[in-house]
């Protein structure tokens, strides 16, 4: 049976074969990552203009192509103004074709803090890899190319300790989980609480807003939800942490002990308590796609 378009959602398009990569034991392809990044940008972050998700295919072009003028024109023109840029890293040797490319996904995040009027922005890269930093050299190559294109140089890269996969195929799921956690934390800091619509609850025009793929750890959830306004005041404009949180105990302090440095570190800290079983995440993603197919009246294979 010929592969045909299942549906389009903003700037992502899924074909009928793409949801098959969500089955247990399969390697997620770039289309699934692109779809979920679009979902985070439009449903969770509600189009926040300070954040950006780069498409996997664009990241591959950045790494593999040497024509800098062409690459410069391919980048979003306002990329240098974003506070947070999510950059999916793949070790493939070509731009994505049908059937996929490479053998490992990881996540690079570029964070930019504006110190004040007339001052130079502080840029830091944060790296998350679920396979013992297997993609670190690839991430460095992407970072170097971005620095050339954005006029940056020798910016710090922080390699974060993060949960590790137990097999050779869940790397894409972990990238989605890491991005989901960080994007929702960022939304908690910047956006007002979502107000249910009296007509359709929390359903949006395109896809129903869903809870996080994973429950945010209790310590952060207490701060991000119960004290949303207080954190937003402390963290605005968004600040970049100096390093990982030195100890889990800092995630459990009370509001009266709130300190900016601790929140900064907590933002980037991801541990096993933040994640669900990867197979559960696959089922949640498939359900989300299935719901969109129902809205579009397209059967999901």
Explain how this protein is built.
About 19% of the residues have low confidence. β5 and β6 form a beta hairpin. This protein has a single domain, classed as Adenoviral Proteinase, Chain A (Adenoviral Proteinase, Chain). The chain is an alpha/beta fold and 301 residues long. Keywords: Hydrolase, Protease, Thiol protease.
Helix/strand layout:
Elements: E1 5-9, E2 12-15, H1 30-44, E3 51-53, H2 56-64, H3 68-74, E4 84-90, E5 105-113, E6 122-128, H4 136-150, E7 156-159, H5 171-190, H6 218-226, H7 228-234, H8 260-268, H9 278-296
Keywords: Hydrolase, Protease, Thiol protease
Protein name: SUMO1 sentrin specific peptidase 8
Domain Ubiquitin-like protease family profile: 12-182
Q: Which fold name corresponds to the CATH topology?
A: Adenoviral Proteinase, Chain
Give the end-to-end Cα distance, rounded to a whole number of Å: 11 Å
DSSP helical segment count: 9
**Share in β-strands:** 5-15%
What overall geometry do the principal axes of the alpha carbons give? globular
Q: Look at the structure and give the mean pLDDT.
A: 76
**In total, how many beta strands?**
7
CATH class: Alpha Beta
CATH superfamily, please?
A: Adenoviral Proteinase, Chain A
The largest sheet has its strands arranged as: 3-4-5-6-7
**Rg for CA atoms:** 19 Å
The run of helices and strands is EEHEHHEEEHEHHHHH
Spans of 5+ residues with little confidence (pLDDT < 50)? Answer: 196-208, 215-259
Any idea how many domains?
Answer: 1
Classify the helix fraction into a percent range: 25-40%
